Amino acid sequence: MVQQSQRVAMSSEEHLKETNTEARFEFKKEEKSAFEAEKGLTEETIRLISEDKDEPEWMLERRLRALRLFHEMPMPTDWPGQPDLSEVDVDEIVPYIRPDIDTRGGVDDWTDLPEEIKDTFDKLGIPEAEKNALSGVGAQYESEIVYQNMKEQWEEKGVIFMDMDKAVQEHPELVREHFMTSCVPPSDNKFAALHGAIWSGGSFVYVPEETVVEMPVQAYFRMNSEGMGQFEHTLIIAEPNSEVHYIEGCSAPKYSAFNLHSGGVEVFVKEGAHVQYSTVQNWSRNTYNLNTKRAICERDATMEWISGSMGSKATMLYPCTILKGPGATDNHITIAFAGEGQNIDTGAKVYHNAPNTQSTIESKSVAKDGGRTNYRGLVHIANGADNSSTAVECDALMFDNSSTSDTMPYMEIQESNVHVAHEATVGKIGDEDVFYLQSRGLDDDDAKQMIVNGFIEPITEELPIEYAVELNRLVELEMEGSLG
């Protein structure tokens, strides 16, 4: 059952310098919560959480249906090369922690946050990013949004950016129509069902017709407690001929017990609209990252997924787009980095269900010290999707003979008048390349870092400069073995 708690976790802040990027992610804070669920997933827990959130009856019914589906579905175990999920025991996860903050739905002024939460996001650089590069910011701590703000110039145009719990209360018609119905139903997979039962927090973004949000909006998700699960839900609705760029950042400190992240993302891209969804994830190496992300594109709409996956013990993430309308376009650019003890299984799925649709998938992966990366992808071109085209490019870079990288593309082509291309390369960092850079004055580590930076450039050039710099720094720390 839900109970009041205040647990104390040992802090390692005094051992880390604030100027070090590692310190920005690995620090731990004293755990203070207003309500905390007991471990496990039961109907009683679901009802208590829904009651704590004061949700309408229809949302509770959806949660309970998802719970039933979760218990009915088997754990995925038969995919070749998939991460080992035997350690994932939901009965050992704390599914819901409400931070100790007076205002439900978060505050709109950093100074109103409790000192320990404000200090967390100050260290992560969120206020500085908001000031310099963003239209709006949402910050989630544990299971709920604690800060939410949107610049007035966009609010005046009718743009809505708020946390999902608040959207359920203030925009029930929009949420009820779109939430886990046609895009990501709980029946999709076991972890989508888990998410539907226990989701909490996340972002709701609504962009009116003909509105272009010129600066990105960002949500940052932070897990601070040991042995918890975070299940935020993101719902984006872009009306016809609108445009928005959403950035998602994630991190957690390292503990001995495993943590679970199982978020859900649903994006509705209406006729002629354009949505870019960028993710920079840096989970600790005790975290299982098991997400479901999907978009539906109408006529002449464009969806772009930009994903950087590092950290985590295991990741299974395959952003999906359904090209529903003629002329719709989908682009994926992903990078995965796996070090010792990590299995990063990522990819993309695209369904061409209408004529004249286009998709591109560019996947980059780096493996070192025995780490494993997989590209696992699906491209489906339906009968009647005439004159559609797809191009898939998978490039893997390995540092040593103990690392593994696999490419597992799957293509279902049911239409003859289409253009399909697939290319895959796997290689090690060449001695000649390192020698050339060393001859220009770089040492061995700097030479390898420069090669990797060039390898991942297609992703970094798609991000605002602040996030490109951060992604490069995270990769550098991964190569040093400093994260996780």
Describe the structure.
It contains 13 helices and 26 strands. With 484 residues, the chain is α/β, with parallel strands linked by helices. It folds into 2 domains: 316 residues, no CATH class; 52 residues, no CATH class. The strands form 3 sheets. Strands 6, 7, 9, 10, 12, 13, 15, 16, 18, 19, 21, 23 and 25 form a 13-stranded mixed β-sheet that branches. It is globular. The N terminus is likely disordered.
List the total number of helices. Answer: 13
User: What's the mean pLDDT score?
Assistant: 80
* Proportion in helices: 10-25%
Radius of gyration: 22 Å
As residue ranges, the low-confidence spans are: 1-30
The amount of beta strand, in percent, is 35-45%
The overall number of domains is: 2
- Using the alpha-carbon principal axes, give the shape: globular
What can be said about the biggest beta sheet?
13 strands, mixed
Structural class: alpha/beta
Number of strands: 26
Measure the end-to-end span. Answer: 32 Å
Summarize the model shown.
This protein has helices spanning 21-26, 43-52, 57-72, 115-124, 126-133, 152-155, 164-170, 172-178, 190-198, 431-438, 444-455, 457-460, 465-480, and strands at 2-5, 33-37, 97-99, 136-141, 144-150, 160-163, 203-207, 217-222, 229-230, 233-238, 243-251, 259-261, 264-269, 274-283, 287-290, 292-297, 302-311, 314-317, 320-323, 329-338, 343-352, 358-367, 372-381, 389-398, 404-413, 419-428. It is α/β, with parallel strands linked by helices. The strands form three sheets. Strands 6, 7, 9, 10, 12, 13, 15, 16, 18, 19, 21, 23 and 25 form a 13-stranded mixed β-sheet that branches.
